[in-house]
Amino acid sequence: MAQSVRGVVSVKRGEPVEVRTIVIPDPGPGEAVVKVQACGVCHTDLHYKQGGINDEFPFLLGHEAAGVVESVGAGVTEVAPGDFVILNWRAVCGQCRACLRGRPWYCFATHNAEQKMTLEDGTELSPALGIGAFAEKTLVAAGQCTKVDTAVSPSVAGLLGCGVMAGIGAAINTGGVTRGDSVAVIGCGGVGAASIMGARLAGARKIIAVDIDQRKLDKAIELGATHAVNGKERDAVEAIRELTEGNGADVVIEAVGRPETYDQAFHARDLAGTVVLVGVPTPDMKLELPLLEVFGRGGSLKSSWYGDCLPSRDFPMLVDLHLQGRLPLDAFVSETISLEDIEAAFDRMHQGDVLRSVVIL
User: Fold this and answer.
1) CA-closest candidate to residue 129, choices 155, 78, 79, 166
2) Which end of the chain is more exposed for a tag (fewer CB within 10 A), N or C?
3) What is the pLDDT of residue 351?
4) What NCBIfam families does its record include (predicted)?
5) Domain 167-305 is classified in which CATH homologous superfamily?
6) What is the DSSP track for 52-86?
């Protein structure tokens, strides 16, 4: 039987979000209803609200979430009622050309729930990243649920569902950071900070944080950066080269998503070094690079999709590292809030006052 719960809805482009009653259908084949316990406030939700993703309003916002499976539909074997799960927005299909070649983290046919959640009047909602977790309960594809150790706090676990995983994965999975590498991270918001943490986990000998907000640089040092460069005070490329014996970093992670900072990343890497773009650009942005330098500098220019993660592999591993005290995920939680506080949380995030606000339900 369908259920009515509270959820945060963006009704029109740019307007304040509203807490509305939403209707959750019973799970169909391959689907699950999850009782949400915590959900992080991510920049992607703000992009949805601003119309920067698409125009499929109204949106049910929220996607960086953890909770407990309440019920499942026919044919579901991955999870069962009572399982504690992190929600992911790339449910692997197992059948596309990427999956069949043994590269499921690149799955080209990820899927979401077939049924739609609605407002009380029947208006269909577009769930953010196929999840919609600023709600007491949500309907997802069962493959979007990754079971993890119940010992981890939901407020921490949910962060792995998007930004923290994207950053850690950009360093470890996409960038291939390994022992002894030098790493520069340009942009030290939530994703950049997680990239720093990932580089530290991988054994990088030198981790250079670059930002124009001193508060973010101070936090980056807390999370494992060995050096901090304020781009307002000095040229970032020159600073990175100076800190790497004049060579440039082995891996440069661009976590802003702008042509200017990507150009810095390109010129701040060593010969045969790697640039990883994990910051998300807008559709209007263009990039110009000297083709001879692209050839002459060698190495790799990569984009990181969701940290090139495989949730079934990476989420449980990172939770275990956190529980062992090796991955201080709680450092990302700046504040805990309620559903009614999300609009104000967007403002604090936009101003750079927080790494993550986390909604507790």
Assistant:
1) 166
2) N
3) 87
4) mycoS_dep_FDH
5) NAD(P)-binding Rossmann-like Domain (3.40.50.720)
6) SS-S-PSEE---EEEEEEEEE-TT--S--TT-EEE
